[in-house]
Every structure is written in structure tokens, then in C-alpha cells.
User: Fold these one by one.
Assistant:
Number 1:
Amino acid sequence: MIHEDKRRFMRMMVNAQAEVTVSQSGEKFLGTCQDLSATGLSVEIEQPLEVGELVTVFINSKSTTIPPFNASAKVVRCSSDENATDRYVVGLEIVQFN
């Protein structure tokens, strides 16, 4: 059986440090952005986040021609990392680019 990906936008695999800030509490987590698309991204962090929680994500750019990524996002999923029990993969839907 062939699996057909029905996403509207291609996901780009990324391995970049990301800073996730919980909007309500101001709590910050450093993690790794795993993938990125026009409408969302997934980030691996050490703490679980609640579905529906609003966050700000910042990924600095190492290029002078590419600006840093800075967006407000909503948590749409959070699951334990299969390879590490103390890591969580958080799926984020981009709400607004800052």
C-alpha cells in the first residue's frame, strides 16, 4: 500500500536550535526544530506543553541574507520522543509571523 501525504505544504527537515516561550507564563525552553513548513513546525524540548497553549518560537539565522524565524504558534500535539524518555516532540501551528 502506498502512503500519500495530503499536506498542502512541503515540510523541510531542519536541525536548528529553537527557543520556545510560553506566552502566558513567559517560561522559556531551548530545543531543536525538527521540521518546518509554511503553516507549522515541530520542536523537540525537555518539557511537555499543553495542546492549545500559545507560544512564541525564535530560530536564529546563521546567514546574513536570511532573517531569523520568529512566530507565534499554537500547540496542536505533544508526544514523548520514542528515543528519549525525557524529551517531547511538540507540533506547532503557526498563528502569526512576528
Number 2:
Amino acid sequence: MVDQRPSSSPIHDFATWEPVLRLLRAGTAEGQAAAPVRVAGSIGRGSWSLPLRRRMPPPGRAAQVGDMQDEFDAVKRVQHALADAGVDDISFTAEISPAGQVALRLLGPSPAVEPGIGTPHPGALTLVEGALPEPWRRLPEPAPGAVPAPSADPELLERTLRERLPGAVGATEAEITAAEARLGVTLPDELKALYRVTRSRWEDWGDDYEAAQRECTAVGCELFALDDLYIADASSRHCRWEFAAMEAVVTPPGAAVQGLVGSPGWIAFGDNGGGDRLAVDLTPGPRGHTGQIIMVGHEENVGASLVADSLTDLVLNRPGERRGGSGEDRPPAVAHVNIRSLPGVEAAAHPGLEVLSIGVWDEAPLTLAPVMGLPRLRTLVAYPGTLADPLEIAGLTGLEYLELGPQEWRVLLDAGAVPRSLSAAAIKVHGNPDPLPVVAVANELLALWDRPRIVQTVLEGSLGAVP
């Protein structure tokens, strides 16, 4: 889809892009040759990826901001235009003739397409509006026999904190009730006891700059203000489709914590100082306690770890009992077939398989026959050139996410064999191919679901001949 009539927005003004294009031409070896220069890149409001050869600093000196000032200034000009247009990211390709004539193509954006990561190629395509990967749709399993830990003692907890934090301003019952109404959940007694001692508002500390540190020491974490409590459900743990589709929710029978992305029963109340959130867990695993304290890591997309059996234990610095172990030897729900991991698709196949990733492979292309009919297989990712027959994919009727190379997608599109069960898809590229054919494949996929396509806006201008 090509728009030859750009809007009046600064992002569609050739002058906005001219400084970036001059830098790209100057930094490309072919810029001095008789052949046209072809470049591609992407710029977002907070980052950019451009094929520039940056100057090395003099020996003995580190790189400084001034060494890249021209690049910063050129990119900032485009970023201001993005903000003016209400656009977060945009990719582009350009062909620059030896005489300096430029054909610049702006690619997108589309609300159905995630931006690529450090590349002008499109990221995941959301084929069904609002669709979420299966792990993000998973709710906690009921644990009818779960009870608070024997160590949970709201009175001891409150008494201990009042001794450690004399003079702290606690929350009123009305404020606690308001927090419960906002969250839509009744706070457990231990958490109420904590906030009756301190509601953890900065304005309550006045000029006492050490109050926050005393509170952190007393509680055992960086405590959120009562007004900042939130439910750490799946929506609070955002993840791009191409990564989220590779995850699986698994809770072994002996687990204290359910292996969820998030839960309506995880009440986040603090931070460990490194970005990991502490939460009260009201939906524990098979061997957990209601009200146990868990840590939701910021570097993982799924699961949480047990910190303490109760909030009382956390404050009294009594670590939680280690509980775990599956009690059975189950094949993994996520399987990786490549030169370093599993030796073939047959080795990955079992009824519980949810995700199959086929990576770099130096033997004959693989057949998907061993995974046909598996009831839970929902994600297939295949590195370009690894499939013996891409049309076998048509037999995988439960796929919700599919990531293939452009040629494999071409086979499916030409045969009308793209699985209609898909909620999202991605085009896996090797190296740095021309983005335009990849965008064409993406637009064909989006058209099958009547989703907004990636619009190409053509701008023409001149940089003049190379001096």
C-alpha cells in the first residue's frame, strides 16, 4: 500500500529527513561510487537504528557526546516530527543516486504491527485485534485447601513495626477501605496491619530525608504508598508477542507459587530496589500458603519466586521454606530444536508440547510430521530454510502464533494455506535484506485478516551531488 500524496505533517516533509540522509550517504562506502546508495533504518521517540559508521575517538580518549553530535541533531529533528504526528516509531528505506536524487519510503506505522527491534523490518503482526498470547490469558488454578501460614501474625507484625517506626503516619480505616475499593479486593489482615503503622507517603516524612531508609530497613523492602498498591495481573507484565508466544505456564504439583504471568490475587506492595516487585499472593500453588510473599522478577516474563511464608516472616527476616519439585519427570512444554539443543522434531514431540522453536540447523530440512495432531501445540517458530515442506503447517490446526522466513510465508500465501487459527504472526529475516519485500509479505498477511496495513509514503528530494 503506497501513499504518493504525503500529508502536511513534518514527518512527511523531506527537509525533516535531509540531515539523516546526508549522514547515511556520507557514511556509506558506495556513496562515492557510480551506483545508487540504498539505505534503511528506523527511528523511534527514544531510540534509533541507523547503518552509520561512527568516527573512532583519538587513541587514549573515550567516545564523547560531541563525537556524535551531528547524528544526535539529525535524529532529534525526526523525533520531534514523530512527537508532532503522535507516532512512536517509523522505519524507512531510501535510494540515493550519484547525483543526490533521493526516493525515500516511510514504512508505517500500523496499529497492528509492532516495530522491529533494532531493524527496519516489521515486528510481530497482531492479526486479531486485542489478542493476547495464551500465557497472558491464563488465570490461576483454584487452591481450595490453601490457608495462611502458621507464622502469619498480624498483631505481632503491627507491634514490631510500631517499635521500629515510632512516629510513622498510619493509614486510617477509611483509607484502607478506599484502597480495597480501588483494587477490587479485600486486603489480607497482615497487609492492613502494615499500613495501619505507615501509609508510606513522602509528604508524611517532611524534611526527614532518612525516613524512607528507616522504613525500608524496618519492612524489608521499598514499600509502596497505600495509594500505589496495584494488582500484578498479566496486564501489568507487558511482553511483545514474539517473546510472549514462546512462554508457557507450568505449575508443578509440588510448587508453592503458580507459574503464571500474573494473577488477580497478586497484590504488589514493594520493590527490592532492583526493579523486582514484592507481592502478597492470594492464589498460591499446590504447596503454598495464602498470603505468602512472592517476588515477581523484572527479567522474567512468567512465574514468581517465594520469598517468605507470610508478611510477618518477611518483616522478622524469617526466610520461606523451600518447596518445589515436580514429583514427576515431564517433558518441557517449550522445545528448541537446533544444532545445540534437541536433535530433531521427533525428539521434541509429546502431548504436552506447546511451543516448538526450530533454530539454526546444518542438516537436511526437517519435517513437521512428528508434531501433527498434538493437542496443545500453539506456537511454531522456524528459522528460514529449516522446513522440508512449509505446506505441512496447514495441518497444525491449533496454532495461534507462527514465525517463518519470507520464502516460507510466500509458499503458504501462494497456496492459500496460511492457518486461520492464528492470532499473531512474524516474519523472521536472516541478515539485513531489503525491507520492502518483507513489508509486502506482512501486508498480505494483514489483508487476510482485514487488519491495518503498513502504509508506504514516498518522499522525493535532492541532496545534491557528493562534493
Number 3:
Amino acid sequence: MTAPLFPVLLLLGVLSRVMLPAQTFNVRDFGARGDGMGVDTGPIQKAMDTAAAQGGGVVIIPAGRYLTGTLHLRDNLTVVLENGACLVGVTNLDLYAAPVPPAHMPEARWGKWHRGLIVGQGVTNVTLAGPGRIDGNRVFDPTGEERMRGPHTLVFVNCRRLTIRDLEIVDSANYAIFFLVSDEVDIQRVKIRGGWDGVHFRGSPERWCRDVRILDCQMYTGDDSIAGRYWDRTLIQNCVLNSSCNPVRIIGPVRRLIIQQCLVFGPGLEPHRTSQRFNTLAGINLQPGAWDATQGLTDDVLISDVTMHQVAAPVHISMKPGNSAGTIRIQRLNATGVYRAALSAESWAEAPITNLVLRDLTVEYTGGERAVLPLPSVKAPGVDVRPLPTWGLYARNVQKLELDNVRLRWERPDTRPAILLEMVGEAWFDQVSVRLAPGATPPLVTNQVGKVYLRHTDLTEPFRLLPEGSKP
């Protein structure tokens, strides 16, 4: 009778170990004072190391103000900042350390730029949870980038199964959350205010960041709210993004990216640290290769159910040499107060954007400009959106363009063309409506465009520009 019971008893023993609550380690028990005067780096680190040595656990940071330099995360830790708890970066820059990026990445040569208040190098299964606060304390460095940037607030390199939730991050001296070549990262219900970028993450051509989710967050940042490159399977959902730069900026290839159910608005509530301006640039800026050379395919991008207000341009897509794009879909976008540039999709590489679909869009521009005739040629963009000779939509070097149920409006009459297409293989317009000003140029102008299909639209037949150098 004993023999048959042995496997059952063994199983019950295993289940009891699995179901036991995680061990807790209160930083106060390790000597942390949390009085905002003494430096608590040592006691907090000791609590983390002790938990890690016992296989992991929950490190509790109770209410208080804890001054600290760099804290190093370990595997299998959950760090909880309880209500009223605040980690504050010390002003002594010598107390900050940096993780080491992979040698093959261009970022590897940046050295101290990677310093952070909380650092994870190669860690797995880590959670940082609130409802407390992490204060970067504006620990600027006169020897840093732009003669001011100091440590990031959270920095991670080569990590997996990382969760950041229910925290508030304020006054970062550089990025609030920065990670490289990391997978399975969840950022949920995080509020970020001030600093430079809110969440910035990068992979490399050899090692992309995979399975990142940014959900239900609020970001009010001086620089880009969310930025980076070499992403695969990324979801940005139900976020409020306010920036004095670009709410979303992609500077390299991405695949399987979804941005949905977000509110994007300007002007910025926090100043752009370098220029002290507050205006918001492109709501979503996909510009692989604009900052430095990148190579690869951007594909399977969906921008859906996004509301924007007071942005320089709603969406700007630009492929620089070495980069290409497959399918990009924008649907159910509602933008008002667009003050500088048309929605644009441009390839300045040899390969065209394969497939661009715009469906169920309403975009209202401030307008008020007058057409310049003949229309000036469009030059390649820099790192920011620029005025264009069209007020509504500009597409360049696109293989197939589809517009379905699209409404383009202005607040003040604008006599420029509503839509300008150049080097487009075929364009489909179905239920497209544009507001026309008295004496305006033709609403649809094309240059080196193949087939144009018009259905249930108030657009007239396109006015075709002659190729440069041609004679009438």
C-alpha cells in the first residue's frame, strides 16, 4: 500500500513547494533608512542580493524617500515600491554604473552614456512594481551628451521576461526606460513625466528586440515618448502620449508592430531639454536610417484607432537607402490641428514601399497656405518633418497605394494640391473626400504614376506633371 501512495505524496510535496508564497525581503530590515538624507544604495542592494541568493523573492521598499546610486537587479526578483515609496537618484555621478552592450552594436562605444539608476545586465524574470515612484532627480552631467545628459533611470541589456508596472517615473536625467537586445518586456500602467525619451529600446541587425508590450501608459516627455529600432512583435496599446518631440519615432527597421487605441497630443507639457521648445512634431514617425545608417525590412505595421491633436504631421514614413518597407496599414485615425506637413509615405531608397493602405481616416489641417507654381520639387527629409507642396497627403516611390473612406480637411482655405503622388505604381481611391478652396490647384497631382483608380470620390482626374526635363 505504501508504494502506490509514494508518487502521490511526492506530487503533493512538489505542489506545496510550487504554491508557497514567495519570500519577502524588506529593505528596512537591511538597514535602509528612507529618510531622504543618507544614501541607501548598500542596504537596498543587499536585500536584492540576499533574495537572489535564496532563489529569488519579493524585495519590499516601504514608504520613504531613498537616496541611491546604481542598483543592480538579479534574476527572479520582484521589487515592489509601496505607496509613498520613492527612489531618488543621488547627485554624485561617481555612484552610477553602466551595463555593457554587446560589442557588435554601435552603442557599445558610448561608454558612460549607458549609466542608470537601476541596471539589469543579462537578468531573467524580473518585475519592478509600484505604486511608488522613481525620481531621476535631474542629475545632469555637464560632460555628457549635449553637455547635460546624465544617467538613465532604468537600463537593461540582454534581459528576458522583464515587467515594469504601476510605477511613476519622473525627472529622468536621460531616458526613463532604456533597454537593448531584450525580449518579453511588459511595460504596463507606467506614468512617465519629464526627461528625454520615455521608453527607448533597440535591437541590432543580428539580434532584434522581441515581444515587447507597452500598455495603458501615460508619457509626458521632453523628447520622444517611445522610440527605437530593430523591433519584432511589438504592441503599443491604450497609451496617452504627449511630447515636445515625436510621440512615437522609429529610427530603424521594425516588423509586426501594432500601435492602437492611443491618444497623441501636443503641445508638450514638458520642455524639450535642448531647445526648450514645446511643440509636438510627427505624431508617429517611421524613419529607418534617418539618424544613422540602418538596413533591413520594415513590414507588417498596423496603426489603428489613434486620435491626435496639434501635431506637426499625423504620420511620417520615410525609408532611407538600405531600408525597405512591405505592408503598412493606417486605419481609423482621427487627427485635428495638424500644423506643418501632410501625412506622408516616402521611399528614398531604391526599393519602393510595397503596400500602403489608408482606411477610415479623418485628418484636419490648419491650412492657410497658398500654392507655389510651378510646384517645387520635394527633397529628402532630414530627421524632422518639413513643409511640403501639398497639404493633405504626399506619397513617393510606393508600389501600391490604397485610400478607402478618407476625409482630408483644412481649417483655413489652402490652395495647394490636396494630394501629390510621385513614382507610384498604382493608386486606388474609394470614398475619398477633400475640402477644396476657391482658386485652388487641382486636388490630385501626379508625377510618374502608373494607374489611378477613382471610385465614389470628389477627386477629379489627376493633373499629371511632366517628368523633369520633358517638353510639353
Number 4:
Amino acid sequence: MENHTGEDSKEAEDLIKKDDRIKGAATLFHDDHLIVGIRVKTFDRFNKRKIAKEVEKKLKEMYPDLSVLVSADSKVLTETTKLILQDDEKGMKKKIHELISLTEEET
């Protein structure tokens, strides 16, 4: 979990950890965005979009001031992890918008 905002990220972390259908997640708070890539457990993979929507709804309630994006797509999880690991603050905003457009294409 990477936090570049003044928001308290503890609630989001707790929400994701408590959901026993999720086995891994990468969470990025940046400016007015909250991006979460999740990996669901094997038996829940057929419901991964539904799980992502449920988590997104809960996070939107917790962080109404942020643009929340939750995806169970493995590409989003990988790219979010890469963003967390990189130190390029200027390039991060561009990559975040690319990620958002990528998820809009998938739906």
C-alpha cells in the first residue's frame, strides 16, 4: 500500500484484509485517486468482477472525496504494483490516467 495523500489508509487496508475472498492486493493513494488491484482466491475467480464492484462501492463510501477504482484484472494489479515501486512522481500521474483508461476499455 502506497499513500501520497493526506487520507488515512488504515480503513482501506482493513477492509481488504478482512475480505476472505481476496488473497492479494495493491493499493495506491495519489492526489485525488485511489487505485486498488486485487487478486481473488481460486474458487472466487468466476465472481471477480462482482467482488471488485463490492469492494469499490465500500471504498467509495469510505473515501467520498477520492476517485476510486478497484479492478480484479491482473494487468491492473501488476501496473499498480509497478507504480508503487517506482519513484517517478511526475510520471506517476500519467501512468494513473493510463490505468484508468485501461479499465474503462475492459468493461
